[in-house]
Amino acid sequence: MERPLLARPLSSASFPVRDYNLAATLTSGQAFRWRAVNGTWEGVLQNRWVRLHQAAPHSPDAPHASIIEATTDAPPHDWRWLTDYLRLDDDHAAALATFPDDKPMRTALAHCRGLRLLRQNPWECLASFILSSTKQIVQIQQCVELLCERFGEPIRSGAPAERRQISDHRSAALCRDAATPNFAFPTAARLASASEIELRECKIGFRAKYLLAAARMVASAELDLAKVQSLPLDAARAELMRCPGVGRKIADCTLLFSCGFDAAFPIDVWVERALQQLYFAKRRAKRARLEHFAATHFGPHAGLAQQYLFHYLRVAGKKELKR
DNA sequence: CACCAGGCGACTC
DNA sequence: GAGTCGCATGGT
Questions:
Q1: Nearest Cα to A42, choosing from A16, A9, A14, A71?
Q2: Residue A33 near residue A20 (C-beta atoms within 8 A)
């Protein structure tokens, strides 16, 4: 018999931001649990439900200034769990200033200045990206949600009554298929105790054995994700790549999106295509050459630069970069 | 109904 | 050691 999870009083806070495009950031393929609900974003961080809303910037004096409003049922004193995740304390302008001043970067930046990196939980990030191979972002979201529903701890969700009051057409459209997440991401220990068959029931196919192996390594402390964060980049990457099913791309995603390695530069097929076309148009460059170029050309915030390139060609450059 | 999707690893030659 | 191929599943 399950105990009902009663909603606690909600608490809210407002955070002033500059050059922070919340929607672009939450949908940029870094994290997979955010859902658009009535013009807001709902997600789960650790064991907390949270709703975010970004007010449109209207001041002509500060066109890139805005407010992010957060609502949750956690005690209202300490918001570090959220500000750390959103990396609100980053000096974003300083990071952008380290980008190389070349045409591809200028174009990508002109397209969107507010794309940010998140600081996710390393286990959730690693597990999510193990699921990501040969899947599209929507499918990854579905698989992650299935895993959470089946293996995650139930958590309190926001006030549903409040949500139902809003019913204009645009909100209804945004609400489409937007199931509110009610479960925490499953722990490594919980997944380690599952069978490969059970995991496969979450539609993850051949990735099930990889996820299971990674869960066992993390749960048994054979792989210490906290320690990974303190290693040099190359050693940290090698450590993650000990997991079967974790190659360089998935390792770099985990390092960049959750372990604080801002210089990690994941190269997937799209970024490879972009680098090839934008920086090596004449000669054909091999993968190792591109990796070396990425590690030396984009500077200490290469990973953020990669996000800008990826975002730019995902939303605008698909036609220009088709093979 | 083919074809492919933010890869990886095993298998060729 | 550098290219090719199978792997599950769902969406165009």
A1: A71
A2: no
- Judged by C1' against the alpha carbon of A137, the nearest nucleotide is B6
Strand C atom within 7 Å of A248 CB: no
* Tens digit of each residue's pLDDT (9 = 90 or more) over A123-144: 999 999 999 999 999 999 999 9
Whole-number pLDDT of residue A167: 40
* CA angle (A248, A249, A252) in 5-degree steps: 80
Helices (H), chain A: 22-26, 80-86, 92-97, 103-111, 122-130, 137-151, 160-164, 169-175, 188-192, 196-200, 208-219, 225-228, 233-240, 248-258, 269-279, 287-297, 302-315
The pLDDT mean for chain A works out to 89
Could you tell me which residues are beta bridge partners of residue A72? A11, A50
CA of A58 to C1' of B11 (A): 59
> What pLDDT score does A11 carry?
94
Nucleotides in C strand less than 7 A from protein CB: 2-3, 7-11
Whether the CB of A137 is less than 7 Å away from nucleic strand B comes out as yes
A268 touches strand B (CB under 7 A): yes
Helix (H, G, I), strand (E, B) or coil at A168: coil
- Using alpha carbons, select from A123, A88, A144 the residue that is nearest to residue A228: A123
pLDDT in tens, A222-263: 999 999 999 999 999 999 999 999 999 999 999 999 999 999
A272 CB-to-strand B distance under 7 Å: no
Query: Is the full-model pTM beyond 0.90?
Result: yes
